[in-house]
Specification:
Shape: globular
Bound molecules: D-mannose
Strand order of the largest sheet: 1-2-3-4-7-8-9-12
Order of helices and strands: EHEHEHHEEEHHHHHHEHEHHEEEHEH
Largest sheet: 8 strands, parallel, barrel
CATH superfamily of the largest domain: Divalent-metal-dependent TIM barrel enzymes
Helix content: 40-55%
CATH class of the largest domain: Alpha Beta
Oligomer: single chain
């Protein structure tokens, strides 16, 4: 019986975690991207080949691309989207030519993940990423100053957000703004507030149905090509899995996952199962998602979140928190057993510990990491998850 393929996200040579570091913690492969290529442009074969060579020179494999990001014209359904779709397909072909067949992407609007505190100190002394809906509303109301935003909140939420905002000094307000505008992996640059505001105004004009239609248009254009060259596309869920700043979500729950899988049925149209993103909503039944959509899961992100009644959450340690990670792992192992029996699909599904706390020596190097991507915190997560997997597997067979 094969195990999940253990992988680790790596952001390239200028990032605080090196391939030598990663090699030491017992992973088979890395999850990487050609980050220097501008959004929407084709990733040249040679650029891919040279990154692959560097990874392989450390005895590791480039297991998954995360992410080939999608140009906003595709998300917004603008006329030039066909041009960008053609470029996207070119990139997939160039990846396949280099023997890379797993591609993660997302269809989130504005920013990738949203958190309101990137250095939330835990009782243990380590730190984690934190999200508070009240802080997010304060950003919406008093930094973004979205038109009519007040009407979209209940009086109680408005008053609480106002009280929170009034209680912040200038440094606190700046910290909140920067935490949210940092919501892009693999970059230390904050999104400019003006740009964020302009994109926000555009997105608010697009309905949820239209966004779903645009996703379906994209999938129906790229998936037949991906299928021909053996590429498995794995969409990452929206993080957090509920509307933020009035922007609709389209990849955040069972129905939305079903919509996207059904709108373009193909083994190449699959999912990145992310227990942390989906798990930030108590309404999501993670085990059911694995059970029902298991054969379309091409990539796995495992982490935990501790949810509170007020809708806030922080990223808990990988085995603790509100996500029933043991049950999720059991469902994943069962999916593997199914795949082994019917000879259908890749059994060693690539898995990475997603995010990690800032722990021990991580603190000294914190400024070299991208938020969520520490070394020791993630390595500890990987060790815990590997043990959990082994324990469950040995007992299921
Ligand atoms: C983790 C997050 C995201 C995610 C991308 C996928 O899973 O840190 O950055 O990787 O959105 O496209």
């Amino acid at each position: 019986m094969e195990y999940l393929k253990k992988t680790f996200r790596w952001f390239g040579p200028s990032f605080g975690v090196s391939l030598d570091d990663i090699k030491q913690i017992g992973v088979e492969g890395v999850v990487a991207a050609c980050q220097e290529v501008p959004l929407g442009e084709v990733w040249p074969v040679e650029t891919i080949a040279s990154l692959k060579k560097e990874i392989e020179s450390h005895g590791l494999e480039w297991s998954v691309v995360e992410s080939v990001n999608i140009h906003t014209s595709i998300k917004y359904g603008y006329p030039e989207r066909d041009e960008y779709i053609a470029k996207y397909i070119e990139t997939l072909k160039n990846l396949a030519e280099n023997g890379i067949y797993h591609v993660c992407y997302n269809f989130m609007q504005l920013i990738d993940w949203t958190r309101t505190d990137l250095d939330y100190i835990l009782p243990s002394g380590g730190s984690a990423l934190h999200y508070s809906p009240i802080a997010a509303s304060a950003f919406d109301l008093f930094i973004l100053k979205r038109e009519d935003a007040k009407e979209t909140y209940t009086d109680e939420v408005f008053e609480t957000a106002k009280g929170y905002w009034d209680g912040l000094n200038d440094a606190g307000r700046k910290k909140l703004e920067e935490s949210i505008l940092a919501g892009m992996p693999g970059s230390r640059k904050l999104i400019a507030l003006d740009q964020f505001k302009a994109n926000h105004a555009t997105v608010l004009e697009i309905s949820k149905e239209k966004l779903q239609e645009n996703l379906s248009y994209f999938l129906n254009a790229i998936i037949p090509e991906a299928e021909k060259i053996g590429v498995k596309m794995a969409i990452h869920p929206d993080d957090p899995p509920f509307s933020v700043f009035g922007v609709p979500r389209i990849v955040s729950n069972y129905e939305e996952l079903k919509f996207l899988l059904d709108c373009c049925p193909s083994p190449s149209n699959g999912l990145t199962f992310c227990s942390g993103s989906l798990g930030a909503s108590g309404d999501n039944d993670l085990v059911k998602i694995v059970e029902d959509f298991g054969d379309r899961i091409h990539f796995i992100h495992l982490r935990n979140v501790a949810r509170n009644d007020d809708g806030s959450f922080y990223e808990a340690e990988h085995l603790g928190g509100s996500v029933p990670i043991d049950k999720v792992m059991k469902a994943i192992v069962k999916e593997q057993i199914k795949r082994t029996k019917n000879g259908n699909g890749i059994v060693s599904i690539p898995m990475r510990p997603d995010h990690g706390h800032v722990l021990l020596d991580d603190k000294k190097r914190q400024n070299d990491f991208y938020s969520g991507y520490s070394l020791i915190g993630r390595a500890m997560g990987l060790a815990q998850l590997s043990g959990l997997e082994k324990g469950i597997r040995e007992n299921l067979i």
